[in-house]
Design a protein that fits this description.
The protein is mostly helical. The protein has one domain. The protein is built from two helices and no strands. The two termini are about 15 Å apart. Keywords: Coiled coil.
Length: about 160
């Protein structure tokens, strides 16, 4: 009878050990996923920065072209006084359109980056919550395992003394 109880207790302890190891493995896996997501987030931020820099360079080229066009318009205006008013209106129109495009492009990029970062932050927060829950379960299983071990030892000692 004592051997049967010992075997049952050993089986229960082994089951708890296996659950403990599974929870530990799950916690390690979740931590790995958090690190991966953080790396991906960092990469996406870098990609967004590169994309924004490309857009800035493109906008700079647009500005340079615009400036070249404005200079040509100024020379033409000096030569052709009667067309001054029309040329001035066109230059202002082009400038406004370039700025609207610039603001729209930057606004769209900022919104996309914010959405991406928020989604990654949400995922990281969720994984951290899951990690904390898994760690709590591991501690609970360790506590239960220790209690069962003590109860088993008490039972064995009691049986030995009787």
């Amino acid at each position: 009878a004592l051997e049967a109880r010992g075997a049952d207790a050993e089986l229960a302890a082994e089951g708890l050990r296996e659950r403990h190891e599974a929870e530990l493995a799950r916690a390690v896996d979740l931590e790995s996923r958090v690190r991966t997501l953080e790396q991906e987030r960092g990469q996406q931020l870098q990609d967004a920065e590169r994309a924004m820099e490309g857009q800035r360079q493109e906008l700079s080229l647009v500005e340079e072209r615009k400036e070249a066009e404005l200079q040509a318009l100024r020379q033409e205006l000096r030569a052709l006084g009667e067309r001054f008013a029309e040329a001035e209106r066109q230059a202002e129109e082009q400038l406004g359109e370039a700025k609207r495009r610039e603001e729209a492009v930057i606004g769209d990029l900022e919104a996309r980056v914010k959405r991406t970062v928020q989604a990654k932050d949400d995922a990281i927060r969720e994984l951290r919550t899951q990690c904390a829950a898994s760690e709590n379960k591991v501690r609970e299983f360790e506590y239960l395992l220790a209690r069962q071990r003590e109860e088993l030892l008490r039972g064995i000692r009691k049986d030995l003394h009787s």
